[in-house]
Design brief:
Elements: H1 10-27, E1 36-42, H2 50-65, E2 73-79, H3 83-86, E3 97-103, E4 108-114, H4 128-133, H5 144-166, H6 177-193, H7 197-210, H8 212-239, H9 245-266
Parallel strand pairs: 1-2
Antiparallel strand pairs: 3-4
Helix pairs in contact: 1-2, 5-7, 6-7, 8-9
Length: about 270
């Protein structure tokens, strides 16, 4: 009987296929089992959604426990790039492989060698972000494009501060008014959309110290309007004038708008 499931993703179909093939292989009456059955799975999760990859070992163990005809013990060997599976395996049961190319006079070939696990914390039940942060899995935990843009912005601000401190007479093209304003807008937008709080805060601080005049200009305008507001309030109280409410509202709106711009500058 051929059964077809509708509306399943490619990864979900692959998940069912892997488990079904394992189950059918072990239920085969022609197979003779010894004391131990070795299951060798080569990247079974290569098409899985991360959530299915995270749950795979648990579901696999449940599936094996349901096979009444197999009384043997299981030894499961899985090759994977997934940190999600690693979180279900004690670090003592992990073998890290490092690939390389071995050259000789005649040819070259791909080689694999075991990598030292020193410095890798216990993996069982460990946070997947912690596992990912190990250099064996990822060189960085943020995307390469965003990393490059952040580094470019940091480099620009450092170079600009260096230029300001040196008081150079010849202004570099990248620091001339039009280019500078464009770059400041770009950096401010970048800071606004960054999701990692620590990086966001550090860049905000760096922006404020790199372009302090911009922040001071907003602060000066806010203080000036607040002084005007206080002055008008005194006049209203002294002369009991109610008709200037609209003026006060306009001033309040102007102050709020400037504060919002100042906050955006910090964000």
């Amino acid at each position: 009987i051929k059964i077809k499931f509708e509306n399943l993703s490619e990864g979900e179909n692959e998940f069912l296929d892997v488990l079904t093939r394992i189950r059918e292989s072990l239920k085969n009456s022609n197979v003779r089992y010894g004391d131990t059955v070795i299951l060798l799975l080569d990247e079974p999760d290569r098409r899985f959604h991360p959530e299915w990859s995270r749950r795979f070992i648990s579901i696999l163990l449940n599936t094996l426990s349901e096979l009444e005809n197999v009384k043997s013990k299981y030894q499961i060997i899985i090759s994977t790039h997934s940190p999600f599976m690693v979180s279900d395996v004690p670090s003592d049961n992990l073998i890290l492989l490092d690939s390389g190319i071995e050259k000789n006079e005649k040819d070259e070939k791909n080689t694999f060698k075991t990598k030292n696990k020193e410095g890798i914390s216990e993996t069982f039940g460990n946070n997947i972000h912690t596992i990912l942060s190990n250099e064996f899995f990822l060189k960085s935990t943020i995307g390469e494009f965003s990393k490059i843009k952040i580094q470019e912005s940091i480099r620009y601000m450092m170079e600009y501060k260096k230029y300001i401190n040196q008081s150079l007479t010849n202004i570099p093209l990248e620091f001339q008014n039009l280019k500078l304003e464009e770059k400041k807008k770009e950096i401010k937008y970048l800071i606004k959309i960054i999701g990692e709080p620590l990086i966001k805060r550090k860049l905000q601080e760096m922006y404020s110290t790199t372009f302090p005049s911009e922040q001071k200009d907003y602060e000066l305008k806010i203080r000036k309007l607040q002084q005007e507001k206080a002055k008008l309030k005194r006049i209203i109280n002294e002369k009991d004038l109610d008709s200037i409410d609209n003026v006060m509202k306009l001033l309040n709106n102007a102050i709020k708008e400037l504060q919002s711009k100042a906050d955006d500058n910090n964000d």
